[in-house]
Write a structure and sequence with these properties.
heterotrimer; A mainly alpha (255); B alpha/beta (274); C mainly alpha (259); A: 255 residues; mainly alpha; MetI-like fold; 2 domains; 10 helices; globular; B: 274 residues; alpha/beta; four-stranded antiparallel beta sheet; 36% helix; 23% strand
């Protein structure tokens, strides 16, 4: 289709999107303000906004945010180092890949969140169990992607480098690492995202602190408006972290 | 020079442009072109890249409506596909990968509306004619490029149309496979009475297969000259070694060489296109 | 050939054998650690977990909880597939719908749904409805996204070829678009099953007043690792079986795909 038609179409779809979201917001407002939807189920959006402003202004969110981000940082650090190390070691042998990769993929296919109660048994309701579950779940995409990255480097590059006399270290530094990096970075991004999700999830299920816990606490206290505000806050934090990791990944890949 | 026999396809003052002047994507694909294709002849369209030969083929087949001019098949104006009169063989793999070879051929007949009872016999006949009798239950992914194009040809043949349009059917194949397929095609087509329009890049292929060769100029292309190849069908493989073949091929080369250079310069000026 | 060399050769030819040995070694490690190294209130050896599975099933309420969980998984999956198929086709087949709605769908797909789990419970109660709803909420998105991709990825030449043979719009859908999209559909179902498992289990673990969540909380608070591990194992086995079913279906129906 011609570019003029194309532009018209794009504007039209944009209009549909905006219209759809606007209609949703309108329904939300009308529902709570005029149609008698229970404020315990769906709070007034204006009230949510005020609660959010209050939370942000007073800094009340800080301790919970610190807990969650702290758990995330430690969990990711552990899964990163262990995942990349183990992944590299396994990738050194085609046989090891054939033995371990299906095993790791198989374990990953089980919802590892099932182990949360066990970790709570071990570590209690504190940050320990959250870090444990975050590490457990984010370990797998990292190790699998590292194996994929190092293990499937096109043979022709290795052959060419060897024919030019590359040493083992040179091979790693100048051939294997650059070739594997894009895949590994993707694995790191996925691992990070998954770690955050599992930590938030475990805070929801069994915790004494953290953003997930705060949301549960407010739900149980029936303070729905404030809970909505915290949900919006948590989603915003997650979205920001996701965008950050995605752009980091893209920038690193471009080099 | 026009060929004997009545006219199967009549192209009158056809030209085509994509987009409008002023659009970011505006291309004059084909300049004013007229052509008469006789019933039962094999006409080759040859020319530099971008000269509009594939565009013309698509217009003859009703896949594209020209921005100016008309195409007639018999006394019918062509503005949409005519599956009962015209069948296509495309360059890329247009076989449906989820169907086996024979299922692909049968599916074509489903689309055209052939009665169910005829599907199996017709499919087997055309697959045998192209030499794929032992591969009818194979899937396209299991076949070589040459065999896939044979299957595509079988699908087109089974539709039993009067006209066959082939858009660089051997373009993606290596030289040796092309040679074999070209020889087999000549034998096969000599047994039918189809009118065939065949687009190619290869000079040798054009001279070997065609009754007439229409040479295109660079974009926006039009027919520069039509050369006749007066040689009975089926063409003997040794035709390629004759003096006559060389002379015709050299004529084509002379007509095309400058046009090809012009086309390369055009695309260099246009810059890299993703 | 010496004994060690022939053993080595057997392993090399059958990596599956080596895998089994790795799994066996891990179980052995678990057994040893639980018996001698770790305090028994924290960890139970696999031998005890297995031998006391019977007791686990006799615990009042466990079989019912397991049955309900399985039922929730099945229903959530079925609903996800139904909704996913309809929405996926609706969005994928129309370029306009695709452009309008895909960004919204992708946005929803990317949000951390776990934060609204308490909200789901508030809205749907502590019964199976909320678990099913949460499961559907996780399972429907990968199905929609993969179906849209399957429909959009079709090579244009295939549509052109069908059109040139006189196919009507319905015929093109039935014979070209639909079969082309089937492998994507099954891949989407595999991801959808993973999502449904996650959603339903998360919801179940959260609600500690009834169902699986009640028992995990109970066993944790009572420091009963034997029954806790037993319960986790049964649930893990359920997940593995369900995943395997969808995976096999994908392999079987995606057969023409070479990529």
């Amino acid at each position: 289709m011609s570019s003029r038609q194309d532009r018209r179409d794009r504007l039209a779809s944009r209009a549909v999107q905006v219209g759809f979201l606007a209609a949703l917001m309108a329904l939300w407002y009308l529902g709570t303000a005029y149609w008698g939807v229970s404020p315990l189920l769906l709070p007034n959006p204006v009230k949510v906004w005020h609660e959010l402003a209050d939370i942000l202004g007073s800094g009340e969110y800080l301790p919970d945010l610190k807990v969650t981000l702290g758990e995330l940082a430690i969990a990711f650090a552990i899964s990163c180092t262990s995942g990349i190390t183990l992944g590299y070691l396994i990738s050194r042998s085609q046989y090891a890949i054939r033995v371990f990769e299906p095993l790791l993929a198989g374990v990953y296919s089980v919802p590892i969140i099932l182990f949360l109660p066990l970790y709570v048994l071990f570590f209690g309701l504190g940050p320990g169990s959250k870090i444990a579950i975050g590490t457990s779940i984010s370990f797998f995409p990292i190790v699998l992607n590292t194996i994929a990255g190092f293990g499937y480097v096109d043979k022709i590059y290795v052959t060419a480098a060897r024919s030019m006399g590359a040493s083992d270290f040179q091979m790693f530094r100048h051939v294997l690492l650059p070739a594997a990096l894009p895949v590994i970075l993707t694995g790191l991004r996925i691992g990070f995202t998954v770690a955050l999700l599992s930590i938030l999830g475990s805070e929801t299920i069994a915790s004494l602190a953290g953003l997930g816990h705060r949301i549960v606490h407010l739900a149980e206290a029936m303070e729905t408006a404030r809970m909505f505000a915290y949900i919006a806050f948590a989603v915003a934090i997650a979205a920001t972290l996701n965008t950050l990791t995605s752009s980091l990944e893209r920038r690193a890949k471009r080099q | 020079m026009s060929a004997a026999g009545d006219v199967a396809i009549s192209v009158r003052n056809v030209s085509h442009q994509f987009g409008e002047p002023g659009d970011t994507f505006h291309v004059r694909a084909l300049a004013d072109t007229s052509l008469d294709i006789a019933r039962g002849e094999l006409l080759c369209l040859i020319g530099p890249s971008g000269c509009g030969k594939s565009t013309l083929l698509n217009m003859i087949g009703g896949l594209l409506v020209p921005t100016a001019g008309t195409v007639h098949v018999g006394d019918k104006a062509v503005r949409a596909p005519l599956p009962h009169e015209i069948a296509f063989v495309f360059q890329e793999n247009a076989l449906f990968p989820w169907c086996s070879v024979i299922e692909n051929v049968k599916l074509g007949m489903v689309f055209q509306g052939v009665p169910k009872a005829e599907h199996e016999p017709r499919a087997r006949r055309s697959l045998e004619a192209v030499g794929l009798k032992d591969f009818i239950n194979h899937y396209p992914a299991q076949l070589s490029g040459g065999m896939r194009q044979r299957a595509a040809l079988a699908r087109a043949l089974s539709l039993e149309t009067g006209i066959l349009l082939m858009d660089e059917p051997f373009g993606a194949l290596d030289e040796q496979t092309r040679m074999i397929l070209g020889e087999d095609l000549s034998v096969l087509l000599s047994r039918t009475e189809k009118t065939i329009v065949f687009v190619t890049h290869s000079l040798g292929e054009a001279v070997f297969l065609a009754d007439r060769v229409a040479v295109f100029s660079a974009r926006p292309g039009t027919i520069k000259e039509i050369i006749s190849v007066d040689e009975p069908h089926p063409r003997n493989p040794s035709f390629v070694t004759t003096e006559k073949f060389s002379q015709l091929r050299n004529r084509l080369y002379g007509l095309l060489h400058d046009e090809i250079r012009k086309a390369v310069e055009q695309s260099a000026m246009a810059g890299p296109q993703s | 050939m010496s004994a060690t060399a022939s053993v080595r050769k057997t392993f090399l030819r059958h990596p599956a054998l080596a895998r089994l040995c790795v799994i066996a070694a891990l179980f052995l490690l678990w057994e040893i650690a639980a018996r001698w190294w770790v305090d028994p209130i924290f960890l139970s050896p696999p031998s005890r977990v297995v031998s006391e599975l019977g007791e686990l099933f006799e615990t009042n309420g466990i079989p019912a909880a397991l049955r309900i969980t399985f039922w929730e998984l099945a229903v959530a999956f079925a609903i996800s597939v139904a909704i996913g198929l309809v929405v996926g086709l609706a969005v994928g087949l129309s370029r306009f719908s695709n452009r309008s709605f895909m960004p919204i769908i992708l946005l929803l797909y990317g949000t951390p749904q776990v934060t609204i789990l308490p909200l789901f419970i508030l809205m749907f109660g502590i019964g199976p409805a909320s678990k099913i709803a949460f499961g559907v909420s996780h399972g429907v998105f990968p199905i929609v996204v993969t179906i849209v991709a399957g429909v959009q990825n079709i090579k244009p030449i295939l549509m052109v070829a069908a059109r040139s043979m006189g196919a009507s719009r319905w015929q093109i859908f039935r014979w070209v678009i639909f079969p082309h999209m089937i492998p994507s559909f099954f891949a989407g179902m595999r991801l959808g099953m993973t999502g449904v498992l996650l959603g339903v289990l998360l919801a179940e673990l959260y609600v500690s007043a009834a169902g699986i969540g009640y028992f995990t909380t109970l066993f944790t608070q009572n420091f009963d690792p034997t029954r806790l591990l037993g319960l986790i194992s049964v649930l893990a086995a359920m997940a593995i079986v369900l995943n395997e079913i969808v995976r096999r279906a994908e392999v079987h129906f995606g057969r023409w795909r070479t990529d």
